[in-house]
Amino acid sequence: MVVPELRPWRAAGPHVARIADAVRPRLARAAETVRPRLARLAAAVGPRFARPGQPGSPRVARPKTWQFTATAATAGLALAAGVATAAGPWDSSGQRTAERDRAVALEAARGTDHGGTRAHAGTPPRGPQAVPPAVSVLTGLGGTATTVKSAPGGKALGAVLDPLLENPALGRHSAAVVDVATGERLYGTGSEDALTPASTTKIATAVAALSAMGADHRLTTRAVYEPDTGEVVLVGGGDPTLTARKDAQGLASLRDLAERTAAALARRGVREVTLSYDTTLYKGTTIHPIGVNPNLAAVTPLMVDEARTDSSTSGPAPRVAGPAADAARTFGDLLKEHGVKATPPGPSKATTRATTLATVSSPPLAALVERMLTNSDNDLAEALARHTALATGGSADFAGAGAAVTARLKHLGLPLKGADVKDGSGLDRRDKLTAGLLTALLVKAGDPAHPELRPALTGLPVAGFTGTLASRYTDGAAGVVRAKTGTLTGVNTLAGTVVDKDGRLLAFAFLANNTTAPTAAQSALDKAATALAACGCR
Fold first, then answer.
1. Is the pLDDT of residue 123 over 70?
2. Cα–Cα distance between 33 and 26 in angstroms, integer?
3. Active-site hit among 199, 211, 253, 361
4. Of 168, 431, 433, 487, which sits with the fewest C-beta atoms within 10 Å of its C-beta?
5. CA 14 to CA 20: how far, in whole Å?
6. For the stretch 288-304, what's the b/e string if a residue is b when 16 or more beta carbons lie within 10 angstroms of its beta carbon?
7. Buried b (16+ CB within 10 A) or exposed e, 24-62
8. Which residue of the set 92, 136, 174, 376 is catalytic?
9. Residues 286 and 303 sit within 8 Å (Cβ to Cβ)
């Protein structure tokens, strides 16, 4: 089995980072210029978007979907045309730098810790911020709703897309294009046929996880002390981004956890401990149905740096065979650096009598979802699917995670006919989704009634700039197409959003199975998305 979609990002990553560094000062100056206007805008709309039940909040109607989308589409097109052509308004995490500036201007709240306590109970919140809880970061800087032309017509779209999608390289294929403003299906061919979606499954995982836990949710790793046995237990909290690197870059740091644990032990006068680790948060097998594979580690709630044996942070890489034991050994070595001698670690389970010594927490779920989508991070995808199961009372194994994702999508009223979710990452070839469901997921993520779902859009790779699209779309659609890629042997998929030439925001999904020429199939899908960007089609 081949999953080549992640390799371009590893090669293009430094280039994208340089682009981000180059454009950031310009965007910062632009943000300073519009900040007063944003402050006035925030003051004006703040009461309208207050959460229900908030004291002093007047009850007013939500903005209609078309008003939200018109603003987002028009401003998005302006940003793409004005800034992307210069250097690209995107940072290396996959979120618009301008969007983050707007979120800061609107004083977006930080997230909360995994256990329901405030963020300072774990790692101090120094990583990426959560999206604003109400006003969408997709709204343009200082933008106001403007009238855009009507949506493309179905016949005109068919005349453009049919010849491109009938490319023999696409094998059996399906497609759907939807007007995000109205939810109207503008184009479809086999759009209700359930096909293998590959990594576009991560869109479903993202929406389900955000719906179940909220954008502010964090994943916490704990070190606890058993008073009866003098045992220190490292309790896995299901955070695959936990890092042992010296520069944590805003992630939960195992080094910080070891330092705080050692300090807590010193206060007890303890300098020698029995070290254990607890992986009981998850159930079932740790090996994905595809078997041992460089595209993901064993699925366990305790790992460090996704169990990678090299310095990579995304893409395929060799992994340690036992991620939990390896993380515990590393933790023991770090304790030793702080004067605490620990035995070689073994598996255990923390009891209810255990006292928490220290905790560290991940960035908010919003940031984790963006990373998962931008980098097509399979380890994060499987973790978030299991956390969705835990949050909804399901079993944290492959079957329970798939069932929980499906249940959350049903709860949101999405069309599930033919859908079958077997994992969170899309690496399982038994996964089945329809083009209609994928576009419905994207429309739901842009719905003003569901601001918690917004990272499912902001995390999509940006054509020509970030993630798995960093090295694609050099033909003029760079910065305009935002889409999740999917690639398995014989499977090529693409689903995301695009602003057409008339400023209309469209959601699209193209799925191709039984492909025999992966490069040609990928090119055909890219051409179809590019055609949408260039289309007025009425």
1. no
2. 11
3. 199
4. 168
5. 10
6. bebeeeebbbbbbbbbb
7. eeebeebbeebbeebeebbeeeeeebbeeeeeeeeeeee
8. 376
9. no
Rg value, the chain, Cα: 23
d(CA 508, CA 500): 12
Mean pLDDT for all residues in the chain: 80
Predicted pLDDT of residue 287: 95
Contacts of 293 (CB under 8 A, 6+ apart): 1, 3, 427
- Alpha carbon 509 to its chain's center: 18
Which residue out of 174, 202, 276, 314 is catalytically annotated?
A: 202
Pairing of strands 272-278, 341-342: parallel
Q: Is 202 labeled as catalytic in the residue annotation? A: yes
Q: Which of 169, 285, 300, 183 is nearest to 234 (CA)?
A: 300
Token code pair at residue 142: 């200082």
pLDDT score of 477: 86
- Rounded Cα distance, 282 and 87, in Å: 44
Global pTM reads 0.77
pLDDT at 529: 96
